[in-house]
Amino acid sequence: MTADQDMREPLEEPLAQLERELITAYVAGAGENIEALVVRNDDAARHLLTAASLYATSRLSEVESRLHYLRSLRGEI
Questions:
Q1: Are 50 and 23 in contact (CB under 8 A)?
Q2: Counting C-beta atoms within 10 Å of the first and last residue's C-beta, which end of the chain has fewer, N or C?
Q3: Of 37, 54, 58, 56, nearest to 46 (Cα)?
Q4: Is 27 in contact with 52 (CB distance < 8 Å)?
Q5: Any idea of the CA torsion for 7, 34, 22, 46, to the nearest 10 degrees?
Q6: What pLDDT, on the 0 to 100 scale, is given for residue 1?
Q7: How far is CA 33 from CA 44, 46, 55, in A?
Q8: Is residue 77 within a helix (H) or strand (E), and if so which, with residue range?
Q9: Residue 12: which pLDDT band, with cuts at 50, 70 and 90?
Q10: Which of 46, 63, 56 is closest to 24 using CA atoms?
Q11: Around Cβ 58, how many Cβ atoms within 10 Å?
């Protein structure tokens, strides 16, 4: 591995930042702080993080479906 390869940013999924924001917003809507929640090790914290992850997954699926639909209307697919 060369020095240039060490200095590059790691690759990230295209919608990873949106996913993090959706999870953070869901947790905030439940009255919790994401930073405090991820260090907890109780059932309530795990349940809330799981629910936030499922919420983010469903919203990301919706975003991807809409994007696919718009591309098909434009003839890009």
A1: no
A2: N
A3: 37
A4: yes
A5: 110
A6: 53
A7: 13, 13, 17
A8: none
A9: confident
A10: 56
A11: 11
Give CA separation, 13 vs 17, 20, 32, 38, 57, in Å: 8, 11, 26, 21, 13
Predicted confidence band of residue 6 (pLDDT cuts 50, 70, 90)? low
What are 12's two structure tokens? 């990230």
Amino acid symbol at 49: L
Per-residue DSSP letter, 11: P
Q: How far apart are CA 19 and CA 73, in angstroms?
A: 26
For residue 10, what are its two tokens? 């790691």
User: For 21-74, how does the pLDDT look when each residue is reduced to its tens digit (9 = 90+)?
Assistant: 999 999 999 999 999 999 999 999 999 999 999 999 999 999 999 999 999 999
* Residue 28 C-alpha from the chain's centroid: 15
Total residues found in the chain within this entry: 77
- pLDDT at res. 3: 57
